[in-house]
Amino acid sequence: MSKTVVSTWAAPLSPEEFAMDYEAVIGMEVHVEINSKSKVFCSCPTDFHAPPNTNVCPICLGMPGALPVLNRDMVNKSIAVGLALGCKISRWSKMDRKNYFYPDLAKNYQISQYDLPLCDNGALEIEVDGGSKRIGITRAHMEEDTARNTHALGGGQSGIDFNRSGVPLLEIVTEPDIRSAREAYAYLTALKQILQYLDVSDCNMEEGSLRAEANISLRPRGNAEFGVKTEVKNVASFSGVQKAIEFEIARQEQVLRSGGVVIQETRGWDADRGITFSQRKKESAHDYRYFPEPDLPPIVVDDAWEQRIRHQLPELPMARKQRLEAQYGLSGYDAHVITLSRNFADYYEKVVASGADPKKAANWLTVELQALLSEAKAEITACRVAPDALAALLKLIDTGEINGKIAKEVLAEMFTSGQSPDSIVQEKGLNQISDTGAIEDAVKQVIGASPNQVAQYKEGKEKVFGYFVGQVMKATQGKGNPQLVNEILRRELGR
C-alpha cells in the first residue's frame, strides 16, 4: 500500500470565478448496515457493543469448508429499500466474490453483488435551495461487512474485531447527478429519513451503521464528458461529508487551474485539519476479479414476494409531508420538521387525534417540546409527555384555565414528572385569573405606582404599554388572563 501523503493547495478562487469555468459532478455511495438480528451468511448476532471477537463462527472467520447461507430478512429489507427508492426489483440476481487482500477480510474476498444487483434504476427526490431535484439511483446491492480495524492500541500494534465481519450491508449508489456539497447533504438527509421510516437501520454513523463516500470530479462547464474522479472516505458525519466535498472541489480546481492533472485515487478526510489526503490509487472493477459466488444459489424474487413487501411499506417522508400540509393546513416548514422523524410525526398525529388544534399542536411540538427534548438529549419515543396529555394541556389554554406562559411551566413539569396537566395546575394553584375585579385591582395598583410611565404613555409612547402589562402579570404571579389584562389597562390608562 502506498504511503499516505497530505496534499497542499493554494486558496481557492471566489465562487463566482469557479462558477464561470468548472462544475462539480458528484456521485454518492452509501453503505447501510441492515438491522437484522443475525449476520448475512450465518446465525451470529450483530450486537455492536459485544466484546471483541465474541460474535464469530467459522463462516465469519473464513474457515475452509464453512458454507454461507443467505439471511432472508436481509433480502426482505433490501427489497423494501429498493421499492421506497423507486427501483426495479430484479427477478433474478446473484451474489459474487470480490477478491482483494486486506487484514479485515479473512477469506481474502468479500461476498457482494456485481453485475446483477437486487435493486437498480431508481430515484430519490430531494429538497434543496428552495426547490426540488431528482437524484438517480444506479443500484442498491447486498454484501457483507468486513471486520473492524483498531489502530490505537499502543506500541505500534493494531487489532481486528471480527464481530462486524459478515454484518448485512446494503450499498446504495447514485448516478452522478449531484452538483454541490449542499445537494449531497440534502441527499444523505433524505436517504436517512427513508431508511429510518422503513426501520431497516438505525443509521448511526458513530457506530458505522451508515457510511457515506463521495466520488467527486470537475469538468469545464457545458462539457458532457466527465473529469477524473476521486473518492473521499472515512467521514463520520453528514456535515463532514459536506465539508470534505467543498474542500475536494476547491483542491481539484486549483490542480486544474495550475495546469496539473487530477489523479484517480481514494482520499481520506482529516476533520481536525479540514483537508482530504491521499490514501491509495483507486482500483477498477477488473482489479477485484469478480466471479459468481459458487456456494450461494441465485436470488429469485417473484411478483408475490415483491407485492408482499410493497404492501408493508409505511407512508414515506415526502408523501407524509404533503399530506400533513393538505390535511392539517400546516406550513411547509412545520410539516418538514414534523416528518423528519417517523416517530415524531406519529406523535404529532396522535396529539391531533386527541382533539388538539393541528396548527397549535405543531407549534407546541416543534418549539416548546422539541426544546425540552434537545436539552435532555432525548428522543420523542422516550418522552414522558403522552400525546393525549399534550392535547389536554392545549385544551386548558383554549378554555382560558391557564395562559401560554403558565402552560410552558406546566409542560416542563410534565416532561420531568410525567404528571397530567390538570393535576399539576391544581396542585400548584396555577389556574388563570379571569376575575375582572381582581385584575382591575392589580391594574390600578400598577398605574398608581408608575406616574412617570403613565405620563410617557399619555405623551404617545406606545412601547411603555408593555411595561404595564409586565407589571400586572408580575402582580398576578403570571396568572392574569392576558386578554383581560390588556383590555382593562387600555381602559384605565385612557381615562
The best one-word shape is elongated
What fraction, in percent, of the residue positions are helical? 25-40%
Count of structural domains: 3
SS-based class: alpha+beta
What are the SSEs and their pairings?
Layout: E1 5-6, H1 15-21, E2 22-33, H2 72-84, E3 88-89, E4 92-93, E5 96-99, E6 109-112, E7 119-128, E8 131-144, E9 148-150, E10 159-161, E11 168-174, H3 181-198, E12 210-220, E13 230-233, H4 238-257, E14 265-270, E15 275-281, E16 291-292, E17 299-300, H5 303-311, H6 317-328, H7 332-339, H8 342-353, H9 358-376, H10 387-398, H11 404-417, H12 421-428, H13 436-448, H14 451-458, H15 464-475, H16 482-493
Helix pairs in contact: 3-4, 6-7, 7-9, 8-9, 8-10, 10-11, 13-15, 13-16, 14-15, 15-16
Task: Give a written overview of the molecule.
With 495 residues, this protein is α+β, with helices and mostly antiparallel strands. It has three domains: 5-304, no CATH class; 315-428, no CATH class; 436-493, Arc Repressor Mutant, subunit A (Orthogonal Bundle). It contains 16 helices and 17 strands. The strands form four sheets. Strands 1-15-14-13-12-2-11-8-7-3 form a ten-stranded mixed beta sheet. It is elongated. The termini are far apart.
Concise account of the structure shown:
The termini are far apart.
List keywords for this structure.
single chain, 495 residues, 3 domains, 10-stranded mixed β-sheet, 3-stranded antiparallel β-sheet, 16 helices, 17 strands, 40% helix, 19% strand, elongated
